[in-house]
Amino acid sequence: MVRPRRHRAARRPRCGGDPGRGQQPPQPPGLLEGDQGVDRRHRLPRGHLPRQGSGERPYDRSAVFNWHARNKLAVSMNLDTPEGHEAFLDLVRVSDVLVENNTNGVLEKLGIGHERLLEINPRLVVARMPPLGRTGPMSGYLGYGPNFNSLVGIAAMDGYEGEEPDSAGENYHMDEAAPAGVAFAVTAALWDRESTGRGGLVEIAQAENVLVEIGEFFLDRQFNDRDPQVLGNTDPHALQDVFATADEERWVAITVRDDRDWAALTAVVAMGDLAASGADAEGRRTHSRAIRDRLAAWCATRPVDDIVPPLVTARVPAAEVMSEPRLLDDPHLAARDWFQEREHPAIGTHRYPGHPWRSDDFELAWGRPVPGFGADNEYVYLTLLGRTREQYDDLVARGLVTDRQLA
To answer: Nearest-CA neighbor of 67 among 118, 43, 32, 19?
Structure first.
């Protein structure tokens, strides 16, 4: 996610460690599993809907929700009613996996804790994602990604170089780290079930999961008594930064990993007296600020198209830090067919982000059209749950099953 300054003279975006890769919205575990062909049923309870918007059926108009909902079925069940509760348990009986990230105790209050669910379906894999675990002194803490990023220490490193940690705005890194961890854990549990014949509970404490990604900083603190610096877009090992170009509000990220990269860079950019200073890793660390200032001056007088191509040709890692409109027009992503058109019953056909990875062994699923609210009620109740037509029509008539938000 790019966060530029408001004024051009001071503007600096934030990007990920690899040149040109901004932070994208997290890919939830259900989406990652659905990409592999898993049949996903997404229960839509009242009061827990996508953000509101203008137009008819505003609850169907969240772009992020619609992207995440690919390869899913959408069904409505009201767990506050006996009929909804029974339907949910019947769905559990014919399911392989349940993933939930409610506050601790919510499932138990609804009478559907994992112990109860595993009694009903011993082969079920129940994945629960409490921020700080199901038990322990912090298990009752509530919050969102930025709150727990502060607790585990990520927020202490997240800021512009030389400034306070909160200078770069909020960071939702826990949201980005958890989905892949959950998808991997669920896959491992299903693999284990092939041998044991039984499912079980998979608990992913999200804060602990994200700690893995900053483990070296904890070790540095424990063994060397050093706190991490606020480095912004720089790096403690490679020469790296993000630079403004002559194009309005367009930036490039450049990285020098080793001596070969440095030699290639100096063949493209006239570094003058700094060419010898940066010839080895220690020299690049010592003179990092001066080298980056020279690169900043070089980039500031050139458009992106005069910066990135010659550096890439020289095999120096460099790329534009893309805004969302620029990503939609990016020729590289277009050549790989990364954006895919998906149809939605309420908002029509639009382009959505594609798979984050590919496999040589099987085709990833694009699946069915993105579902609207409760779009698959009839299929789930009649085909999967075995309700008769009369039973289903009665539930609809009483407002217990609906394809519209009622409150």
So the answer is: 32
Angle at 83 between CA 81 and CA 84, to 5 degrees: 65
**Residue 407's pLDDT band (boundaries 50, 70, 90)?**
low
SS3 320: strand
Longest Cα–Cα distance of the chain, Å, equals 84
Instruction: Classify burial at 363, counting beta carbons within 10 Å of its beta carbon; exposed 0-12, middle 13-18, buried 19 or more.
Output: exposed
- How high is the pLDDT of residue 380? 96
Specify the higher pLDDT residue, 205 or 32: 205
The long-range contacts involving 293-296, CB below 8 angstroms and separated by at least 24 positions, are 294/269, 295/241, 295/243, 295/254, 295/269, 296/241, 296/243, 296/244
Phi/psi of residue 128, nearest 5 degrees: -115, 140
What is the Cβ-side half-sphere exposure of residue 320, based on CA atoms within 13 angstroms? 23
Distance of alpha carbon 184 from alpha carbon 206, whole angstroms:
14
pLDDT digits (tens, 9 = 90+) for 94-145: 999 999 988 899 999 999 999 999 999 999 999 999 999 999 999 999 888 8
Other CB atoms closer than 10 Å to residue 321's CB: what's the count? 24
- 385 contact partners, CB below 8 Å, separation of at least 6: 87, 90, 91, 94
Residues 119 and 175 sit within 8 Å (Cβ to Cβ): no
Amino acid at 330: D
Helix axes 145-152 and 173-196, enclosed angle (nearest 10): 90
Q: Residue 11 has which token pair?
A: 């503007």
Q: Do the bridges between strand 251-256 and strand 318-321 make them parallel or antiparallel, or are there none, so unpaired?
A: antiparallel
Identify whether the C-beta of residue 202 lies closer than 8 Å to the C-beta of residue 185. Answer: yes
d(CA 336, CA 357): 12
